[in-house]
Amino acid sequence: xxxxxxxxxxxxxxxxxxxxxxxxxxxxxxxxxxxxxxxxxxxxxxxxxxxxxxxxxxxxxxxxxxxxxxxxxxxxxxxxxxxxxxxxxxxxxxxxxxxxxxxxxxxxxxxxxxxxxxxxxxxxxxxxxxxxxxxxxxxxxxxxxxxxxxxxxxxxxxxxxxxxxxxxxxxxxxxxxxxxxxxxxxxxxxxxxxxxxxxxxxxxxxxxxxxxxxxxxxxxxxxxxxxxxxxxxxxxxxxxxxxxxxxxxxxxxxxxxxxxxxxxxxxxxxxxxxxxxxxxxxxxxxxxxxxxxxxxxxxxxxxxxxxxxxxxxxxxxxxxxxxxxxxxxxxxxxxxxxxxxxx
Length: 343
What we know:
This protein is an alpha+beta fold and 343 residues long. Helix content is 14%, strand content 29%. The longest helix has 8 residues, at 84-91. The relative contact order is 0.14.
């Protein structure tokens, strides 16, 4: 059986020198500063439309390290520049879908790209902290956080149905409910359920049933227990058709690392196109829900067998992290960064 493959193809080629010379462009008058702070010493004032190159430096919340066209280095406020690299990734790619459509079965031999991770800065009540790819918890990460915090973006993926993900076997892992759900408890048979599939890049179409940003008072260990919006995951229930319920959903999760690359992703915008606009209310609006297409990596989250019992999901398999979201507008797929809600 020939299985469909989603391929991201470049529509344009930029010379390396152009990419190096213009990674950001200023959107208004802004100060180039010596330190990543609003009180940092001012080097000079940059005009709107000025090109800046990225430079390597430890991440600082709200600021980006840059080099001007004449070689002056410093920091500028992240909200005062456009990230041309992220925009190019969105604008220069498109999906090509096999003639046979989405696959109803996931092939364990499909390629699994190597995991790439990063360390980010997060905000807490104690101030700004560094959060590594394994997060922070009372015990060492057993690999779950590491999978969640990957930063690579797939250049190709397999188009699959929601049913294909729901069909992946996870029932043996439900027995861990009530116990610390660590991977160290897995048997060889448990690992054999997960290893062939975890890390495959997939694209799937469906609908958001409900969008649940992280609690503002309780963080999760992958994100070092942060709870600011920019530092936390969204828990989204993805369903195949608008009349399905949350208990039939596959959980998909944008993470701090993926959200920071996609400035147009907001929880308010995501909730507005979902079947349930408010996670605290049962009111459903199936007619206005918009079809979405999401890309990311298959991942097993063994922590939530109880969520299956409570009707929050159908499977422990997730798309986590989500690296791309598109919305169907008429007959055209629109990148979620560029999508605008109707007035």
